[in-house]
Amino acid sequence: MPNVFIKTYGCQMNERDSEQVARDLQDRGHRLVQREQEADVILLNTCSVREMAEQKAIGKMGMLKKLRRERPKLVLGYMGCMAQRLGEGLEKHSPHVDLVVGTQKFHRVAEYVEEALRKREEAFAQEDTAELGSAINPITPIVDIAAEAGSQNTIRDHLPETKKEATAFISIMQGCNMHCTFCIVPTTRGEERGRPIAEIVAEARTLVERGVREVTLLGQIVNLYGRHEFPKVGDKSPFVQLIEALHEVDGLDRIRFTSPHPMGFRKDLVESFARLPKLMEHVHLPLQSGSDRILKAMHRPYTAASYRKLVAALREARPGIAITTDIIVGFPGETEEDYRASRDLAEELGFDGAFIFRYSKRGDTPAALMEEQLTEEEKESRNQDLLSVVNTSASRILEACVGTRQEILCEGPSRNDPSRLAGRTRTNKIVIFEGGRRFHGQIFDVEITSASSSTLYGTPAIHDGSDPGE
User: Fold this and answer.
1) Which pLDDT band, with edges at 50, 70 and 90, does 124 fall under?
2) What string of DSSP letters covers 104-149?
3) Please, is 372 exposed, middle or buried when counting C-beta atoms within 10 Å of its C-beta (0-12, 13-18, 19+)?
4) pLDDT-based confidence at 466, cuts 50/70/90?
5) Percent of the chain having pLDDT more than 70?
6) Which residues pair with 214 in a beta bridge?
7) CA spacing 20 to 30 A to 468: which of 57, 208, 227, 332?
8) In this structure, are residues 131 and 69 in contact, taking their beta carbons and an 8 Å threshold?
9) Residue 463: band (very low, low, confident or very high) from pLDDT cuts 50, 70, 90
């Protein structure tokens, strides 16, 4: 069967979607490869959150023309958010592409791949090889960006176990109804749709049987999960009901979620951090701006004061909880005073980390039509300045960990130094340490000995007489 190479751009949800597509392809007998030069099919799972992400994918597809000239039967495809947004328009940017599959049709990709392979094989038998390798595509591209009811329930399978993984992502919903003026997600992902709690819990149990000890729940606005499909029980939202159900899964030791919205943090969810020990003490809480005027222009229905109050409530519910965030600088009309409000609030709250984004003008969003668009120089200056504020607080928090014991889950070899191991603390901080295979997938304490600007280093605090190198 043909070899398939998948390259993923963007967020964790895109990674999870790619995993589902890979699983479907493997179930049909296709083989996944790590090098595009070995592939018979190359799929790019795309992102539309920022223009640069789209340009990277289009540029990459352009570079693949060379491989097409060498191997005319090669199938090339786009899937995901950019495919959903541009649809047939991608033929203009990439006339050699064979597939364009949107966000509600990931479960159709495998069958479309086989159809495209069949089409190219037939064209190869009938046409001149040189033409097949040219920019002119001899087959009609398969384009499917239509909505499909129940598509949120199709992202449920994981790749067959090739190595033990201690952590896994679970997609619990698709779509977003918030319509922030800078965001294209409602266009690319559609309206909110949640999966049933029982299905999610069943998926978690299957993962635990494979050795997974920590799951991260994924959704565009994850803590608004199920608000349209499922009723409250008492004062508990569907999202809290889901967390409680997962909390009862034997062998599942850690629960995380991303990305939430401040408006989804009602009393029941905040209190969950005080009473559910498997719910890790880390919240990624997008701020976007510290200026109430800009928040209103962004269509973010909270204020700097209510955000500050929420952070205080979370820190009270779970002392030591880590708070990370997203902040956009250079939103249309952002004055120096508006920017200073963001800077001051970031300094006051002392985030454990933050993603600082320069505002990116996205077509099909209200903000793209707003007046007073800022220059790239202004955005970059504010970006670097705010990064320095966040990095200062993040470094201070990491330095405070030196000399303490931190519980970690060992995830395996360090990405940057495979000779050492890596794990994450309950507050989601990376710890690098020396050790052997016996630590993989284990939860244990580490003595923190030093810290860099983004990483902790330590020694396993295990005193059972065995050799850490075993």
Assistant:
1) confident
2) T-GGGHHHHHHHHHHHHHHHHHHS-HHHHTSSS-SSPPEEE----T
3) exposed
4) very low
5) 95
6) 167, 254
7) 208
8) no
9) low
Residue 465 has what pLDDT? 44
Instruction: Check residue 139 and give its pLDDT.
Output: 79
Residue 26 neighbours by CB under 8 Å, 6+ apart: 32, 159, 160
Q: How many CB atoms lie within 10 A of CB 432?
A: 19
pLDDT (0 to 100) of residue 364? 84
Interatomic CA distance for residues 8 and 12, integer angstroms: 10
Tokens 């599959």 map to which residue?
101
Q: How far is the CA of 260 from the CAs of 6, 46, 114, 235, in angstroms?
A: 28, 22, 37, 19
CATH 3.30.457.10 matches 402-460: no
pLDDT tens profile 220-274? 999 999 998 999 999 999 999 999 999 999 999 999 999 999 999 999 999 999 9
- Rounded CA separation 132/69 (Å): 8
User: φ, ψ for residue 49 (rounded to 5)?
Assistant: -60, -40
User: 3-state class of 430 per DSSP?
Assistant: strand
CB distance 6 to 32 below 8 Å: yes
Give the tokens for residue 124. Answer: 């190869």
Do 165-280 and 281-399 have matching folds? Answer: yes
Cα Rg of the chain, angstroms: 23
